[in-house]
Amino acid sequence: MPLRDYNAAVDFVDRNVAEGRGGKIAFIDPQRSLSYGELRDAVARVGPMLARLGVEQENRIALVLKDTVDFPILFWGTIRAGIVPVLLNTRLNADQYRYLLEDSRSKVVFASSEFLPAIEEAAADLPHLRTIVAVGDAPPPTLQLAELLDAQHEGGAPAATCADDIAYWQYSSGTTGMPKGVMHVHSSPRVMAENAGRRIGYREDDVVFSAAKLFFAYGLGNAMFCTMGIGATSVLYPERPTADSVFDTLQAHQPTMLFAVPTLYAAMLADPRSRTEALPDRLRLCVSAGEPLPAQVGLNWRNRFGRDIVNGVGSTEMGHLFLTNLPHAVEYGTSGVPVDGYRLRLVDESGDDVADGEIGELLVNGRSAAAGYWNQRDKTRTTFVGEWTRTGDKYHRRADGVYTYCGRTDDIFKVSGIWVSPFEIEQALMSHPKVLEAAVIPAEDVDGLVKPKAFVVLSCCADVDPDALFEELKDHVKSAIGPWKYPRWIQIMDDLPKTSSGKLQRYLLREMTLGGVDATENTRADRVVYGRAAAGSGR
After folding, report:
1. Which molecular-function annotations from GO does this UniProt entry contain (predicted)?
2. Is 332 contained in some domain?
């Protein structure tokens, strides 16, 4: 790929039309469908429309959009014009939006109608922001995307960009601290599409349904880059996915590929429809990423539906998947092997490589790595070290090259002098039929010794005898993974604190414990914490 004269939108949009797919459906949402030819025509009009709004090449605009066909129109139209779309989570509040709009210095915000109140509150007196445009219905004098595009009768030429120009931003969801603006270049989507596309096995005749949203790196790679990279069709669902809505979408559109996060697969298994409803015959592949796939969820899916879930690992910094199970050789409880095009290392705290079987931090090398974090020089230098990107995840690698997730670098702890992975304990707990979700953190007993503490969401709502449950789960974990690893305390929760993209926020559980939420129960090991608690602030 030449360094100069490359525009990602021309590659992903115009190329599909040039190769004869102009009449093929590119995107389907509940209201309408869009062919590749219609997409190209709409995308070409976005640049002149933005110019009329006072946006110039290399400026940034923010997208706060539901997953509808307007998303690819604005995303690719902005990139085609050499302007940088900043993809924002649709589940934030006004204060969070204000931080992101101020940090990104976005000139224009395009927001789906239901998000306008929060955006308008966030945008008050922001010096860089010129205009808010509604995507959908909105009362005057709010500008509307449909009217602006209809008024733009002619398309513009693509901007003169190169492969290393910044193409788009995403903000890291981050389990702690403020989100960081992750900057990706024009060449990155093609790298992601080729590497992950080959591993997962996309085909031109595929119909892809990603329940993971487009603002999320996993969803963007699934439903946009890999799908358009091969000229396939993507089904978009604008609302927050539930088990029921996913079953409905599968039946309505009969996709060939399903992409979701583990929490959604678990919710589908817990839904009554899973007992009576089969998956579409056309559905040949299910993929999970965004958080580690518990082995029991995969096994239950296989037993219930006769299909496997391919477990994948990616990151906002790398753009998409770089480590997955092989689709034809799924091994639950592992993360698989590196995707072709990426190299992986495991290192200790000194940066030295660790031997097979030892735990180390995962570093990734690949051409889809971000250019860095916006205005975060120290964090950029810490994460992007030469050709390598630090993930902050702990893994061990078998002699056959298969990687297994062990937790975040700040999650691993020692019990009786032996390193313990909270994820391993969580998987053991979730393999018990009474446990739907689990999270494990270190906690101190009365002697100041560190022991595992578990927070569990039960798979049923029936009352349980806490002491009997504790003994049952303790024995289950001991027999599954070792006698020193069982949780000394178990707290029953209504839900677990997670980021808006579904990642577990262990630090909130640690704060609950340190803050005295259950301090009286923490003084004695080997017990259940009585009563239920909700995650509350972790949502």
Report:
1. acid-thiol ligase activity; ATP binding; CoA-ligase activity
2. no
**CB distance 11 to 44 below 8 Å:** no
Name 474's Cβ contacts closer than 8 Å, sequence gap at least 6.
Answer: 486, 487, 526
> How far apart are the C-alpha atoms of 103 and 253, rounded to whole Å?
39
For residues 507 and 497, give the distance between their C-alpha atoms in angstroms, rounded to a whole number.
9
Q: Tens digits of per-residue pLDDT, 33-46?
A: 999 999 999 999 99
Closest CA to 335 of 389, 392, 393: 393
pLDDT in tens, 135-149: 998 888 789 999 999
Decide if 100 is inside a domain: yes
Low-confidence ranges of the chain (pLDDT < 50): 1-2, 516-525, 530-539
The predicted pLDDT at position 347 comes to 97
Other C-beta atoms within 10 Å of 278: how many? 12
Q: The CATH number of the domain where 524 resides is what?
A: 3.30.300.30
Task: Classify residue 91: in a domain, yes or no.
Answer: yes
The whole-number pLDDT of residue 521 equals 43
Range of the domain at 17: 1-186
460 CB burial (10 A radius; 0-12, 13-18, 19+):
exposed
Consecutive H or E run containing 452: strand 450-458
> Residue 343: what pLDDT?
98
Strand 108-112, strand 131-135: pairing? parallel
Residues across the chain: 539
Evaluate whether residue 343 is within a structural domain: no
Q: What's the pTM?
A: 0.85
Tell me the CATH number at 136. Answer: 3.40.50.980
Q: How many domains is the chain built from?
A: 2
Q: Which helix (H) or strand (E) holds 208?
A: strand 207-210
Secondary structure, 3-state, 422-442: HHHHHHHHHCCCCEEEEEEEE
Domain boundary among 170, 186, 202: 186
